[in-house]
Structure formats: structure tokens, C-alpha cells
Amino acid sequence: MAQVMAQKCSLCDENNGTNYCYECQHALCTACRSKHGKIPALSGHTVADINTIDLSTLNKRNQCDTHNKEMLFYCTECSNLICSKCVTSTHRSHAISDICDVVEEERENAKENLQQMRLKTETISSLQEKIRREHIENLHAESKKCIEHIESVCKDLHSFIEAQGSVKTTEVEDNGNIEKSNFESFLKNTDLVHKQYVHILSELENLLLEKHDITFYSRYKSIKSDIETLISIPEEPPFARVPSFDDEVLYKEAMEYMGSKMDKRIQKIQGNSSKRSRNKGRSNQKVVRRYQGRTEKIAVRTHKCNSPERCRD
Ligand SMILES: [Zn+2]
Ligand SMILES: [Zn+2]
Ligand SMILES: [Zn+2]
Ligand SMILES: [Zn+2]
After folding, report:
1. Å from CA of 85 to ligand 3 middle
2. How far apart, in whole angstroms, are the C-alpha atoms of residue 295 and residue 287?
3. C-alpha dihedral over 204, 209, 213, 217, to 10 degrees?
4. CB-based burial of residue 27 (10 Å sphere; 0-12 exposed, 13-18 middle, 19+ buried)?
5. Cα 15 to averaged position of ligand 1 atoms, centre (Å)
6. Ligand of minimum distance to the alpha carbon of 26
7. Angle at 50 between CA 47 and CA 54, to 5 degrees
8. Within 13 A of 128's CA, how many CA atoms are on the CB side?
9. Of 33, 91, 25, 106, nearest to 62 (Cα)?
């Protein structure tokens, strides 16, 4: 706007123009503006703050492109502003009206546009606000809910498998404790036997050092009777039995558990679908069939997992 500000007042040609008269197409200083307003011939002119006007396009918009003359009328047939030459040439016999009448109507239209734009910008703002407040929060909340659901299912499966594993490891541990205590009592008994044998062994060693025949004979007789009453050496016990772990059993238990979970879901879906309309029910039937398909597949897989012997059970 520097160029605009530099325009001199066209009346006094001294001060910088602060206003602009559309009809005179000149800048006016503040003092000359009031003089301009008092001249009766110029009373209908439109004067505005020079800073609010884009002078670069002003002249073009004011003049007829064909005749380079000021636009003075409005052709209602062509919906165009026209100059005095247009009236007698291109737009001859067209219906003509005053620019101010058309502009008045257009101002009303512009006001309506403004109102609509206001409503639309408000709609956009409230939409954005809704996206920020509701949609993004909803996304967070739903994602959180979904993750919690996944975690709870995983936790459930994990605790089921852990519990089953614990039952099996406890069985092995309990068996180990029983078998170990059997071995310990065997060792305790064997200790007694061992002591008796060691005792007789040392008796015999001492006996063989005996020089006196009679003494030897009578002591040996007593030792021999001790040898006869000795408990025989215990037989080696068999290796301890350790319960066998069939991993397929655990897999099967896990799958049966998952199958029971899905059965519950199917029952729930069937319960819901019976409450709803037949139409909706049909789509639920599809879901039910899908779940049933899955459980059947699991059942088939479980079946395959087991050896033929187990299948007969
Ligand atoms: Zn002036
Ligand atoms: Zn003027
Ligand atoms: Zn013209
Ligand atoms: Zn026309």
C-alpha cells in the first residue's frame, strides 16, 4: 500500500491522500474530503478510506472493457454492468436497470452468503472439535478396550495352561518324593545289614589272629551261628517309575478349553439372535456357523493329534 499512501490529494495537490472517491477516481486529503462533501454536484459520490481500497484493480473494474468508459447501467438480460456506449450498441433493446437497484439486491445476497459462510465455518469448526474431542478420544478408548480384551483372553489362556501344567508338574514332583523316600528307607535298611556284615567281617579278621585252638574253635562256632542268622543282601530295587508326560494331552486340554470358550460365545450369539429380527438373525447364524466351523476344525485337529489307541478311549 506504499504507492497508495504516496498519492497526493487531487484537490489541494499538497497533502497525502487519506481517502478515495470512486466517482472522481482521485485521492483526497482529510481537509479536502469535507470540502468535496459540501459540493452539491458531488453529493452522491462514494468516498472511502484509501487503505481499504486495492487501487491496482479499481480502474479496470470501473470501466467497460470494450469502450473504456465508466460503467453506468446494468443489463438485466446479460447480467452485466455496461457503459453508455454499450446501451446503444451491443446491448441495444436489452432491458436496462440502475446499478444501485441491482447492487442493493446483490448486497442482500452477499449478506445471505455471509450468513451461510458463517454457519458453514462454524460447522467445519465444530466438526474439527468433534473429531478432536470425540473421534480421537473414542479411538483411544476403543483401542484401550480392545487391548484389554486381548490381554484378558491371553491371561485367561495363560492361567489355564499354567494351572494344567502345575497339575502335571505336581504329579511328577509328588511321585518323585514318594520314590525318593522309598529309596531312603531302602538305604536305611541296607545300612543295618551292612553294619552286621562289617561286624562279622572284623570278628573273622580278629579270629584268624587267634593262636589258641580251643578258643578259636569256640569263637568260630559262635560266629558261624551269627553268619547263619544274617539277613540276606537286599535285592536291587527297580528304577523308580516316573509318570510319563504326553504333550498331546496338554495340547488337547488347551484346545478343549478354547473350544468350551467358543461354545459359550456361540450360545451367547444364539441367545442374542433369537431376540433380534429374523433378518439380523440370519447374519448371526452365519457368525454361529463360522464359529461352529472353527470348533469343528479344532475337534478334527484334536482327533488327529491322538494316537489310535487313545481314540478308542
Ligand atoms: Zn487536499
Ligand atoms: Zn468525487
Ligand atoms: Zn461499453
Ligand atoms: Zn445486454
Report:
1. 5
2. 12
3. -10
4. buried
5. 6
6. 2
7. 105
8. 5
9. 25
Ligand nearest to the CA of 70: 3
* Per-residue pLDDT tens digits for 225-240: 999 999 899 999 999 9
What share of residues in the chain are helix, strand, coil (percent, to 5)?
Answer: 70, 10, 20
For strand 47-49 and strand 71-75, is the pairing parallel, antiparallel, or unpaired? Answer: unpaired
ipTM of the complex: 0.69
User: Which cell numbers in the block locate residue 118?
Assistant: 458463517
- Residue 257 CB neighbours (<10 A): 15
Kind plus residue range of the DSSP H or E element containing 69: none
- Give 62 Cα–ligand 3 centroid separation in angstroms: 11
Cell 460365545 sits on residue: 265
Ligand 4 centre to CA of 119 (Å) is 36
Distance 83 CA to ligand 3 centre (A): 4
CB-facing half-sphere around the CA of 109: CA atoms within 13 A: 6
C-alpha 34 – ligand 1 centre gap (Å):
10
- What is the reported pLDDT for 54? 77
Cα 75 to middle of ligand 4, angstroms: 5
The cell for 188 is 536305611
Name the nearest CA neighbour of 79 among 94, 64, 62. Answer: 94
Strand 19-21 vs strand 47-49: parallel, antiparallel, or unpaired?
Answer: antiparallel
Whole-number Å distance, alpha carbon 82 to ligand 4 midpoint, is 8
- Block mean pLDDT (10 aa), the chain, length 313: 62 91 88 91 89 73 85 93 94 93 93 97 96 95 97 96 95 97 96 96 96 96 95 93 93 94 85 68 53 52 43 36
